[in-house]
Amino acid sequence: MTSRSQHFLICQVCHKSKPQRELLPGHLVREELLPLICEKAPDWSSSGYICYACLNQIRTNYIRHQMRKDLGELDDLEQEVVASLENKALLSENIDEEYDQTLSFGECVADKVAEFGGSWRFIISFSTLLVVWIILNTVSILLNPFDPYPYILLNLVLSLLAAFQALQAEMLSDMQKKG
């Protein structure tokens, strides 16, 4: 087992040596941020690198500057947004959890069925079932197949599955229109 050697490069802003995965090439930095970067690092070159910590700090300063320019003085909510950017904290809540608590039993079951019906596990298992069904009925054609060719029972099962999926899609569409 070989260990990967890490390339360390220098951030042009904080002048610290950091692994390459923690640095962004200078030519990928947005042009709007360049004046703020040049204030902190007058020797800035687009051929160099900037670490994500410095870049995030500069982005925060840019957003603060833009908000002040557009709105004048920042109110409490805007200050909270800027502070969350500086601290890398989340401001939003997970509204999916609140929504999930309002679902009825039937809606929860429908979500689980939809989740499984669109998964690779379902597609692979259902394809395997179809192949086994056809092989069993083709190999045992000489004996007494339970669904001889042209597989009428299999067609019925597939038609029912398609009808259920269409109904499910319609129900999900109605739920999305309501919610």
TrEMBL record:
Membrane spanning stretches: 122-143, 149-167
Entry-linked InterPro entries: DUF1003
Pfam families per UniProt: DUF1003
The entry's keywords: Membrane, Transmembrane, Transmembrane helix
Name used for this protein in its record: Uncharacterized protein DUF1003
Organism expressing this protein natively: Thiogranum longum
